[in-house]
Amino acid sequence: MISVNNLSYTYAGSINPAIKNISFQIEKGEIFGFLGPSGSGKSTTQKILYKLLNDYEGSATIDGKEVKSWDKTLYEKIGVGFELPNHYLKLTALENLEFFRNFYQNSQKPLDLLAKVGLENDARKKVGEFSKGMKMRLNFVRSFMHNPEIIFLDEPTSGLDPVNGRIIKDIIKELQSEDKTIFLTTHQMHDADELCNRVAFMVDGALKVIDSPKQLKLKYSHHNVEVFMKDQQDPLYFSMEGLGQNEAFLQLIRNGELSTIHSKEASLDEIFIQVTGKSLT
Amino acid sequence: MTNRILNLIKVDIKRIVTDPNLSGYLLVPIALIFFIRYFVPYITIKYPVIAEYHHLIMMSGVMQTAIIFGFITSFMILDEKDESVLQVIRVMPISSFYFIVYRLTFATFFSILGAFIMFLSCDIAYPGMVNVILLSILYGLAAPFMALIIATFANNKIEGMAYFKFVDLILMVPLLSLFIGGFLKYGFAIIPVFWAHSLYQLSLDESFHFIYFLVGILFNLFALFILFKQFKKRVFDR
After folding, report:
1. Domain boundaries, given as residue ranges, for chain A
2. Model ipTM?
3. Model confidence over A112-161: pLDDT tens digits?
4. Are A272 and A201 a contacting pair, CB within 8 Å?
5. Which of A84, A87, A103 sits opposite B92 (nearest CB)?
């Protein structure tokens, strides 16, 4: 669906490339997470993929066709949800969606879309009166109002409360079940972990690793269990290897003195730092 | 395509009408028409010398009417810049070229219409129907000129207002050419509205000077072409 090979891009007037020889493939129906700190080249990669930057080196194809060769019909195939809200503030939410839907050949009904993200009662309210979270939800539904095959989402849960964040994540999963391909850029490692089939870590314009969150956790975790005893402040650690034969551990279970047991699985955050030596913030 | 254009027109009109600041500027041409139609003849009776300047008053009035639509359009584009809507337009299946051309045509259409209505409503210096049509078109092109300058170079509405006043002043400068004889007056020719003023002055006796219209159109299109490229580079494709 999306294929990127040895892609590099240098902005005019800059000596250093913003992205350096990156390569990755995204399959149809996949949710691909693109993770990295600000300035790592995520936005540049996205801009190339949605044809805002054409003078790149290497190759970036969508449906087998080089991105720079696509005409405006590309935007019937892809949808873009930007990181920051971008709407006509003096128009209502409904008027905004009605306005944009007219550019597409097919599109979903604006009121149905607004209802999906809990904005049906605010449909006739001016967007200028919306909170940031409401504007982000409007951004989100606009990105797939025309039933695109590929959806680029940049921080789709930014500024949302947990309830609305959950709604957005559920819709993303629903879109995946409809065989949509989703390119997700986020700082929210928890979201990436929950949603993505694979994630790519990007730092200083280079891709450091691409794998599924599950595989990354298996690879980079310490494979220990952390045990808290009822009468002790400090935890005890046991290696997962041979745990069933670990007499000390089995003794604790038999004695019933346990308070909690956790497998010490590394979070994506920790893995990111471990792999790249940088934090996401 | 027609549906898309109608959609754009509908939304643009709605944005102007529902914005008290923008809709307020629509009163400017109406006020000018009333001023020139009723007040100028009245004051001319008291001070007959003013009659010698009727064409100058009309030139200023028609030009102000024309550029106000450019100003309104530029503020709509500034809103789109502020609200990052241009970013969304760039990822829509609509050509950026057509979008900008539509916006400029929108400004030009209303500008020509405003100038035409003013010519017909105010007969203090009537140049004849054919010339009215030609002059309305020439003056009307001041609107996209104004719109592109403000939308390209102003970063916000305060700067936009400053640019408007500055460009308005520049557009007034060719009026001086009417007081200069010989070839020297063509020093103002680089400002596109010069050709409209010149054509107007020559056609006061209802004679035809089509060449001024033609050259004026070419100058305007050249200026608009350069400004268009700048707008696309600095604003739309940034």
Report:
1. 2-212, 222-264
2. 0.82
3. 999 999 999 999 999 999 999 999 999 999 999 999 999 999 999 988 89
4. yes
5. A103
